[in-house]
Design a protein that fits this description.
Number of helices of chain A: 2
Strand content of chain B: 35-45%
Strand order of the largest sheet of chain A: 1-4-2-3
Order of helices and strands of chain A: EEEHEEEEEHE
Helix content of chain A: 10-25%
Strand content of chain A: 35-45%
Shape of chain A: elongated
Structural class of chain A: alpha+beta
Strand order of the largest sheet of chain B: 1-4-2-3
Largest interface: A-B, 86 and 88 residues
Number of helices of chain B: 2
Order of helices and strands of chain B: EEEHEEEHE
Distance between the termini of chain A: 31 Å
Structural class of chain B: alpha+beta
Oligomer: heterodimer
Chain lengths: ~160, ~170
C-alpha cells in the first residue's frame, strides 16, 4: 500500500441544512493529537469567515494499492460474510466482509441458511486477530468472542 | 458546544469484485490508538481480509472523528454554495486552493475579491503559510506564498435544494 498525504476534513452545515466539506492536507508523520490541535486552530481561523457551522472534524490517514491485482473471476461483492462479535454484556459488533469466498460457506449445516465454516484456517486466523484486543465496537468496547458468522446476499 | 471524540476510529478497506462493483469493510479501533499503531494493525489485517474475500482490496483509510455535541445554529441565509476561494503556492510552485463554504459577504469587496484588510483574513493566511504549521499540499510540500482570494459560487445540487422548495398544494393547485 502506498500511503497518501494524511488530511483533516471538516463538515460544515448551513442554514438550509446543506453540508459541505473542507479539506486540508497535513504533513506525513503528524500524530492524531498534533493533527487535532491543528484542526482546532484551523477551525478557530475559518469560523469567523463563514456563516455555516462546523459539525464534525476528522483526521484521515489513507493508503492506496498502486498496482491492484484482479479480483477472482467468481467474486461477488453482494455476497457478504457477516461476523457478530460479543463485546461484553449486551454489547456487540458486526463486521461485514464483502465478496466472501464461496469455499468458506458451510452448505451442509443442518440449520438452513448459509453459515461460515469457522474451522477453516483462514477464517480462524481472521477471527483470532479480530479478538486479539486491537479492535472494538462503535462504542469502544473490545471484541471478546465470536457469536455468529453467516452469509447474506445483498440486493 | 464542544467537539467530542467518538469512542472509536474507523478502519475502512475499499474493495472491488469481478463485475466492478465496490464495497467496503469497516472495523473499529479505540480512538486513543496511535496512528502508527493503527496503520500497522491495518497492514496485518489486510492480508487476513484478502484471504477471506474474492474481491481485490484497493485502499485503506483510518479516520479519527470528533463531532460537535451541541452545534450552534448556522447564520441565517448562509449557503454552502457561496465560497471564499483562497489560493496559495507551494515551495515547488504548485497552486493549492481552499474553498471556504458560506463565506461572509461582509468580508468581500464589491468586486468579489476578498478584502484582505480584515484581521480574520490575515489570521487564516498566517495559519496556512506559517513556518510551524502542519498543512501542506497533496505531495507533502509546504505552502509558502499567498496568491489571492475571491468569491465563487457553486451549483446547487439536488441534495442542497430547500426542503420547503415544493409548492404548497393548498395555495397553488
Amino acid at each position: 500500500m502506498l500511503q497518501k498525504q494524511p488530511f483533516i476534513r471538516f463538515v460544515l452545515l448551513d442554514s438550509s441544512e446543506s453540508s459541505s466539506l473542507l479539506r486540508f492536507n497535513i504533513r506525513r508523520g503528524t500524530t492524531v493529537a498534533a493533527a487535532a490541535v491543528g484542526a482546532n486552530d484551523m477551525r478557530s481561523r475559518v469560523g469567523p469567515l463563514t456563516g455555516a457551522r462546523f459539525t464534525q472534524q476528522s483526521v484521515i490517514y489513507s493508503s492506496v494499492e498502486p498496482e491492484p491485482g484482479s479480483p477472482l473471476p467468481e467474486s461477488i461483492a453482494s455476497r457478504v460474510g457477516v461476523f457478530v462479535f460479543s463485546c461484553g454484556l449486551d454489547q456487540y459488533a458486526i463486521v461485514e466482509i464483502y465478496g466472501i469466498r464461496e469455499e468458506f460457506i458451510d452448505i451442509e449445516n443442518p440449520c438452513g441458511g448459509m453459515l461460515i465454516t469457522l474451522t477453516h484456517p483462514v477464517i480462524a486466523a481472521f477471527i483470532e486477530y479480530m479478538i486479539s484486543g486491537i479492535f472494538v465496537n462503535r462504542f469502544g468496547h473490545p471484541l471478546e468472542s465470536l457469536e455468529a458468522a453467516f452469509v447474506q446476499i445483498r440486493p | 458546544m464542544a467537539f467530542v471524540a467518538r469512542p472509536s476510529a474507523q478502519l475502512t478497506y475499499g474493495m472491488v469484485d469481478a463485475s466492478g462493483s465496490r464495497g467496503t469493510a469497516s472495523f473499529d479501533i479505540p480512538y486513543g490508538t496511535l496512528a502508527a499503531v493503527a496503520i500497522a494493525a491495518a497492514d496485518v489485517l489486510r492480508p487476513l481480509l484478502a484471504a477471506t474475500t474474492g474481491c481485490t482490496i484497493l485502499s485503506q483509510s483510518i479516520t479519527y472523528s470528533s463531532v460537535d455535541n451541541a452545534p450552534a445554529a448556522a447564520a441565517a441565509n448562509s449557503r454552502v454554495e457561496r465560497k471564499g476561494v483562497f489560493t496559495f503556492l507551494t515551495a515547488a510552485g504548485k497552486t493549492v486552493q481552499y474553498s471556504i463554504p458560506s463565506f461572509l459577504f461582509s468580508l468581500e469587496k464589491t468586486s468579489g475579491a476578498i478584502n484582505e484588510d480584515w484581521p480574520v483574513i490575515q489570521a487564516l493566511v498566517n495559519g496556512i503559510v506559517g513556518a510551524d504549521v502542519i498543512f501542506c499540499d497533496s505531495n507533502g510540500v509546504d505552502l509558502t506564498q499567498y496568491k489571492g482570494a475571491r468569491e465563487a459560487s457553486r451549483k446547487t445540487t439536488r441534495a442542497q435544494l430547500p426542503r420547503d422548495y415544493y409548492p404548497d398544494a393548498d395555495l397553488i393547485p
